[in-house]
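Methods: holo model generation. Sequences were used as deposited, without trimming of termini or removal of tags, and paired with ligand SMILES retrieved from the corresponding compound records. Each pair was processed once, and we did not select among multiple samples. The sequence and zinc ion SMILES for this entry were:
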Amino acid sequence: MSRAAKILLLLVFLGMPLLRTVAQEPQALPSADERYKVDILVVVAHPDDEGAATPYLARALDEHRRVAVVFGTRGSSGANEAGAEQAASLGAIREIEARNALTTLGITNAWFLDGKDTASQNVLLSLANWDHGESLEQLVRIVRLTRPEVILTFLPGTFIGEDHGDHQASGVLATEAFDLAGDPASFPEQVAGPTKRLEPLLENLRPWQPKKIYYFPDADREDIFRGKGPEYSVKEISKSSKQAYWRMALDSFRSHQTQAKSFLDKLAQMDEAQIEKMATFWTEALHFVLGKSLVGGSVTGDVFEGITPGAIPFARPEISPEPSRPELSVDLAGPYSFYADFRRAHGLTNLPHPEPPEIALQGHTTLVIPLWVRNRTGKTQEISLAASLPAGWTVQSGTGKFTVAPKQVAATRIEVLLPAVPENETKKPEPQEATVRAESNGQSIGEIKLRVELRKRALPQ
Ligand SMILES: [Zn+2]
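and the model returned the structure below.
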């Protein structure tokens, strides 16, 4: 500190008792930190998942939109093509790869939740391994800090595709944060003003209601998402870089050496025309699905249609009632019943989902069909379960007769051993149907279908 500054400080200190006795002019309180305000908050699961949106993000940055990205995990259980590092060390590397990828596009603000990379298709396993409540608290904090107009995330649902449980979990958390961040009664310690100077616990954020949420699906087939949101060509040329958006996305992706070194090495050997052909793995256009808009606008209109600057009031989602069920009923449980509850709880009853439900599984693994059996009658009921399966599929357990006590909701599961898929199989796999029939006293009480596609490789169920 300079001598002049010290004297100034001394004068201020000596003057303080005097100042206290003088009436103060009203002073403007500090407002939220503008440096962290964004237009788009992207919420994904792993470093490199941002690639699902980078051709659009490059366009949004051209239009002077501010963008920040939240990663649910550091991707520590993925493969490493670039070196020997694994587990937490790989996570440390992938965090830097993600930051570098984003910086290439011009995005500098990225946050990482402390979720653990969970290799399965079951969103419930991922949510458990991410410490769901803690991750949600962190994400609500980031939404209140960044005040996004739009949240862009994975579609919460289960489909034939990579169908990564972590991808789904990021979409679940982002939807929950969309509905909670504007509620002053949710995580109120975040929106409490400081009680005294240097108060280390209360955060002095304000509630913030984002205006729209859009999803991108982690599914192979896109037909059920067509017309459910806007689409953006990846071939258009950026005004700022004079390059196609797919090219900017690819240049950003080059940071992910641990995930794609062999692919990137191959690219380095190609000329421009070959690269353009190869880059069609990013398809012609990005398709988004509108989750909800609190500011109107059309379903397939631009992401920012209907959005004007400034805060909007908190909107509590409309909860749809549970469907009425007969006194004795059987339903698919696990992630399938979770998503039915989730869509009702968050006003997402129009969100596309496959009917019958579907999944892709690796050959020679076990298909688990989780079930809820509900007995609302006043007496014990005998239930029998039978499965109709494609040739070569065999029930391991779970069929036959059992009883359910009065007023009980019982959980059960049928396990089916799937046939192997030969390594030299070249036929494109087609989904096949498994059907479970439930009866009581000779009467049908439910029929459940699940479409299953057998593959050489797939994440566990
Ligand atoms: Zn991922």
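The longest strand covers residues 443-455.
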